[in-house]
Amino acid sequence: MFMPRLSDTTRAKRRQHVLTSAWRCFSRDGFHATSMDDIIAATAMSSSAVYRYFRSKEEIIRASAEEGVVRVGEIFVALLDRDPCPDPAETLTLLVAELRHRTDDPDYDMTRLALQTWAEALRDPVLHNRVRQLYLDTLDRIGELAQRWCDNGYLPPDADVQAVAAALLSIMFGMIVVHHVVDDVPADALRAGVALLGAATRTAAPTATPANQTTS
């Protein structure tokens, strides 16, 4: 029996359907407690159809991790496309809103996948290398944003934009961990805390006098 050839668009949609079905399972049960049978059942597709797009759960995990990191980079691409460019305070507010948007999705939580991706990258060197490169690309996008802040006077003209990018990416990672392990940090508290730390780290730490040492 002749089977019509699927268009590239249809193939891409079906592949994405497999991924999003897997994300629902991963968000609920984690990478390792989810089986291929769980994923196949979630897709409502035949096993042969699912294996046409992914040969193993490991391939699905790697593809999921890659798309998750790419979506992080897209946050900063979108910020760079804004006119006018958001200032640092507005950027922190937007990042908090983005985190809330991702964790409120009724179908799957991409931040849960992020936590699992970081752990999985410690075990899987192929995944580690790919995720590392994607995060380095994201750092470049954040660096472009930091350079805009220099150009617009929010940062000194000679500011180390790569240091700013590393700090902002670290804040994003921390926001995800704190959301799942402790509690959400409101945008105003985050802005205030970053401002206080920035002011504190601009000056050298005072030299402490040992408690048992007296001064003349």
Written account of the structure:
The chain is mainly α and 216 residues long. It has a domain at 58-200: Orthogonal Bundle (Tetracycline Repressor, domain 2), CATH 1.10.357.10. It is 72% helix and 0% strand. It has helices spanning 8-29, 36-43, 47-53, 57-81, 88-103, 110-123, 125-151, 161-181, 187-201. Helix 6 packs across helix 7. It starts with 7 loop residues before the first helix and ends in a 15-residue tail after the last helix. The mean pLDDT is 91.
List the secondary-structure elements in sequence, H or E. Answer: HHHHHHHHH
What is the helix tally?
A: 9
Globally, the shape reads elongated
CATH topological fold name of the domain at 58-200:
Tetracycline Repressor, domain 2
| Strand residue content | under 5%
Q: Give the termini separation.
A: 99 Å
Topology overview:
Layout: H1 8-29, H2 36-43, H3 47-53, H4 57-81, H5 88-103, H6 110-123, H7 125-151, H8 161-181, H9 187-201
Helix pairs in contact: 1-2, 4-6, 4-7, 5-9, 6-7, 7-8
Feature tags:
single chain; mainly alpha; elongated; Tetracycline Repressor, domain 2; 0% strand; 9 helices; 216 residues
Brief rundown of the structure:
This protein has a domain at 58-200: Tetracycline Repressor, domain 2. Helix content is 72%, strand content 0%.
